[in-house]
Design a protein that fits this description.
By secondary structure, the chain is an alpha/beta fold. It folds into two domains: 296 residues, Metallo-dependent phosphatases (Purple Acid Phosphatase, chain A, domain 2, 4-Layer Sandwich), CATH 3.60.21.10; 31 residues. It is 34% helix and 23% strand. It has nine helices and 14 strands. A seven-stranded mixed beta sheet has the order 7-4-3-2-12-13-14. Strands 1-8-9-10-11 form a five-stranded mixed beta sheet, covered by helices on one side. Strand 2, helix 2 and strand 3 form a beta-alpha-beta unit.
Length: 329
């Protein structure tokens, strides 16, 4: 299957980052920074995102962005995005300067795999305040995948965006980009959804999760990704599939923290306190969960049972009776 092959390719070429219980990472995906126009879903969340970045910078986290950071399908000019969210990029530049930032490309910023484009657009930008060209992400390298390797046990987490093997968003990314830029973008403004997006298509989202789970089971590696916009932190008895969620849900952003040997799914949102003052707050949604609970050899039998149970269910659902049952439900 193409998705399994693509994940194998990503694993084989991934940069390996070893870590232990002293290291701290924050993983965000699908930020979709736009140009602050009416179609920019990130604009309404940028203050929460800035507050989160400041928190993680002060707490000495390493920032990892799992693709679709910039909305380069809808907006051809990166300088418009950088200008619209100047303060955000200044915070990200601080992470980069301290070698505490890694960026992956996704389908909506696939152009980032073009090193010449990256040199022209990401390394320097025009500072409108100073009216000079200044460095942004000088010397940055954009990856398709990373591997986080836990020193204590040698177990590995494959980090990808999650579009790998999704034919429309992977192999056909360029025509998909054109259709978004010149067609779906305008329908998006008035509420229409793009049916090819797994973020809007539940059937497609579940299919991606099933195929990724197959790779996890066969390769005995964990996966952390984005793409579907559906945040998920696996339980200790689950196959170790993790999803960071996204930063464009209305008035809330999601991410996964890795710290002190634990994984935690967190949410940042604006809430009113008892005095009516609005504050950006961090909330734990799931976890923390000990990384060692996901070690494959410890949970092999449970995962084997879960995989085959899910495989049987998937086969049943594709049968005639499965389709009829779905209609009746």
């Amino acid at each position: 299957m193409r998705t399994v092959q693509r994940l194998d390719e990503c694993y084989q070429k991934a940069k390996v980052i070893e870590f232990d219980d002293r290291d701290k990472f924050i993983l965000f995906s699908d930020v979709h920074r736009g140009d602050n126009s009416i179609s920019d879903d990130f604009a309404r969340n940028q203050n929460m995102y800035q507050a989160a970045l400041r928190y993680y910078y002060d707490q000495n986290y390493t920032y990892i962005e799992l693709g679709d950071g910039d909305e380069l399908w809808e907006h051809a000019r990166f300088e418009h995005i950088a200008s619209a969210h100047h303060d955000v990029f200044m915070l990200l530049r601080q992470f980069h300067r301290e070698k505490r930032m890694y960026r992956l490309f996704g389908n909506h910023d696939m152009i980032l795999k073009n090193t010449n484009w990256v040199k022209r657009n990401l390394m320097y930008f025009e500072d409108d305040y100073q009216e000079v060209e200044t460095d942004l992400f000088e010397g940055i390298q954009i990856y398709e995948s990373l591997v986080l390797k836990y020193r204590k046990t040698g177990d590995e987490f494959l980090l990808v965006h999650g579009h790998q093997g999704d034919f429309v968003n992977d192999q056909l990314w360029f025509p998909s980009m054109l259709s978004m830029r010149y067609f779906w973008r305008f329908l998006h403004v008035v509420g229409f959804r793009n049916p090819s997006s797994p973020a809007k298509n539940r059937v497609k989202r579940h299919k991606i999760e099933r195929i990724f789970s197959k790779w996890i089971y066969q390769r005995k590696k964990a996966i952390i990704c984005g793409h579907t916009h559906r945040a998920k932190l696996a339980k200790s008895v689950d196959l170790p599939y993790f999803n960071t969620g996204c930063c464009v849900q209305p008035r809330v952003i999601y991410g996964i923290e890795i710290a002190e040997g634990n994984l935690t799914l967190v949410q940042w949102k604006v809430e009113a306190d008892y005095n009516g003052v609005l504050r950006t707050v961090r909330k734990v949604i799931q976890g923390p969960r000990d990384i060692e609970h996901f070690l494959f050899f410890k949970n092999y039998k449970k995962w084997q049972q879960m995989y085959f149970k899910g495989h049987r269910r998937m086969k049943a659902d594709t049968s005639l009776w499965g389709k009829v049952k779905k209609l009746l439900d």
